[in-house]
Amino acid sequence: MIPKCIGIIMDGNRRWAMAHSFPTYEGHKKGYEKLKEVVGWAKEVGVKVLVVYAFSTENWNRTEEEVSYLMDLFREVLKNEIETLSGEDTKIRFLGTRNRFPEDMQALMHEAEEKTKDKKEFTLGIALSYGGRAEIISAAQALCSFASSQKEIAEADFANHLFTVGIADPDIIIRTGGEKRLSNFLPWQSVYSELFFIDTFWPDFSKKEFEMILAEFGERERRRGK
What we know:
44% of the residues lie in helices and 16% in strands. The protein is an alpha/beta fold. It has one domain: Decaprenyl diphosphate synthase-like (Undecaprenyl pyrophosphate synthetase), CATH 3.40.1180.10. Strands 3-4-2-1-5-6 form a six-stranded parallel beta sheet, with helices on both faces. β3, α4 and β4 form a beta-alpha-beta unit.
């Protein structure tokens, strides 16, 4: 059984850099290269959606130097790498609150989404300035006017106001780096996700580990409360 949607918390870039006596930015750069590999692995096996946690709302609290480097990396990807990352068959979606990003980056995100909006084979959701609680609050606020004309709010109504509207809930969530928590990643969408926590730092995540996770997923019984 191949999952339709996989979510990944790409953790361990900084610790990978420290372990190799590299500056932090080298870990993030290596992490982006790994993302390109994993997108290819997912497409090869027939996964249709990949949602990756690239930058959380809490990450804005990191050092000014690190945040500045990450903004430069994101900008470089948006300007020069988005076609390489998406390929000919991939729709790009950015998930999160964009107003904290510089205007040029917001424009580049919009441009990337517009260029790829009609692609249907694969969707790459990139969670940038994303926080699950912020997403739920945003959806609740959006529902306030909607609710006045409805006797009852259904789960589908709420889901239609999330950042991930139109994206399937993840069948699997993988977290690299050894931590065993979701850290504000897709709390609404992950209620029935199969969770996989591995010790490997994200830049060292291997195709063999990816395939082992898919194999174990295929053996799990997903009853969804039944």
